[in-house]
Each structure stands twice: as structure tokens, then as C-alpha cells.
Amino acid sequence: xxxxxxxxxxxxxxxxxxxxxxxxxxxxxxxxxxxxxxxxxxxxxxxxxxxxxxxxxxxxxxxxxxxxxxxxxxxxxxxxxxxxxxxxxxxxxxxxxxxxxxxxxxxxxxxxxxxxxxxxxxxxxxxxxxxxxxxxxxxxxxxxxxxxxxxxxxxxxxxxxxxxxxxxxxxxxxxxxxxxxxxxxxxxxxxxxxxxxxxxxxxxxxxxxxxxxxxxxxxxxxxxxxxxxxxxxxxxxxxxxxxxxxxxxxxx
Length: 252
Hints:
CATH class of the largest domain: Mainly Beta
Number of strands: 18
Radius of gyration: 25 Å
Structural class: mainly beta
CATH topology of the largest domain: Immunoglobulin-like
Order of helices and strands: HEEEEEEEEEEEEEEEEEE
Largest sheet: 5 strands, antiparallel
Helix content: under 10%
Shape: globular
């Protein structure tokens, strides 16, 4: 009798395993979504940082539900994005980052501005977003390697939006330095990266003015390249940084 029960149990497990394998036997998603987040004032891609502190693309698939769970794609450092493992379907797509929100709500939660895009993702689909950054940061000339082995860089920051609702106080500005090209608030060498912290509205006097920073910590080690980038942020939301593009300095 025990042998009979044992054989029945084995059969049940085998059938269950077979059923499970059939449920999981779907083809992998193969659709691609790519595009750019573009600064409306310069028509260039909006520089950001890799990972959770940078620009992200929000997808809400409405093919099967009116209340879908959001799916997020991180932008690359240069402001472009490319994701190759999506299922085909209709999505409401927007972008989130250090810029005026594309989707805005009032105090009651009602949507008052909606610049999201409804897109059928199939094959390779391209979507671009035009945004107004909180800050626009520009290099002034090129970083200079000094005789003492430090590097000096000049830049300026201006407001990227005229909307007073998104012109919060500027909290800090950094010259980020790193030994690889992925450089920003999430990836820098603190030994050499100087910063300026501002209290309240004191940075307003610096808007549009040339600011100069020199790497700290003495001379940079020789015989290598360094990657520099300026980031600044305002006291809004999650306080994401706006950035310049990346400059390279070779220390012989």
C-alpha cells in the first residue's frame, strides 16, 4: 500500500512540474524602446547620471489594465535611453528627472498638465521628450592642467525654466572628478572633487556668472586620464543634479 501511495505522489509531482514548465514556456520579450530626453532650450540631449539618481523613463502599459504597475528604464549618462526587452503593447510613457515635470497635478490630485505620450511599442520604437531643466550648466573654455598638477575649470549655471514654481534655491555645485568616464554624484573621487554649498538664496547672485573651481587634495596622480563634470542642483523634490557634458584631462 505504501508503494502505491508513493507512486501516486511521484506522478502528481511530475504532472505539476510539467504544468509549471508549460506556464513558463513563453518567448522572451524582444521589443525595443529607444530615444532621448532633450533640453528644449538648446536642442541637445539632457546630461544626467547613470542609475537611480538620474533621468528615468516611466512606462504604464494599458493594453490589459487601466491601472498598470509602472515600469522604469534608466537613461544613459548622455541623455539617451535604449531598452531591448519589452513586450509589445500600448504604453503611456513619460520621463522624470531634474527638469520641470511632464505630468503635473494640483493639490487635489487632479492632473493639470500631461505631456506624456501614448505609444504602441512594436519592433523598434523611438520616443523623444523635450524638457526644461531646472538648471542649465555650461563650460567656460576648457579645463586647464596647472603646473602644480591640479586642474582648474570654469563654468556658469543659469535657470533652465522661467516657471517660478520650479526655480527653487540652488543648494550646491560640484566639480566631479573620476578616473573613468562614468562620472557624477554617484561616481566620483572625493579626494579631488571640490564643491560649493549655498545657504538659502545666496546662489542667486551667481546665476549667469563665471565660477572657477580647482581640484583639491594636491596634484593628481600622473600618467593617467581624468574625467571632469560639473553638477548643480536645486532644492526641489529628490534634488537631482543637472550636469555639463564630460571633459577629459590627461596628466602626463
